[in-house]
Amino acid sequence: MSCGCVNTNKNDGKQVVDLVRSKDKADFPLRTPHEIVCSNCENTFIMNTHVDKCNHCNMTYGVTPCSSMNKENVKAAGINY
User: Is 24 domain-assigned?
Assistant: First the structure.
């Protein structure tokens, strides 16, 4: 995903999710699944793909493949985004 990542605001969850989806990588499994505490409902879930949702409130999260090794790079994009 070297094309596009550089020009994306990686702090904006919607931009991250849009970029990952545009590259057809949303459903690709993460090399290292991350335990995420949802920023909306505080439920804990395991993020297994580059775009995933909280199973309690459907908050969508995304991370680019080149940044996916670090859990801190996972960003919330919005409910049902």
Answer: yes
